[in-house]
Amino acid sequence: MSREEIGIRPGESAIELPSSFDAGVYFVGRIRTPWTAREQCPKNGAEADAVCTIIVDDCYADGLKDVASCTHLLVLYWMHRAPRNLILQTPRHHDATRGVFALRSPARPNPIALSVVELLDLSGRELRVRGLDCLDETPLLDLKPYFASTDAKPAATVGWHVERQRP
Ligand SMILES: C[S@@+](CC[C@H](N)C(=O)[O-])C[C@H]1O[C@@H](n2cnc3c(N)ncnc32)[C@H](O)[C@@H]1O
Question: What is the pLDDT of residue 166?
Answer without folding.
Answer: 75
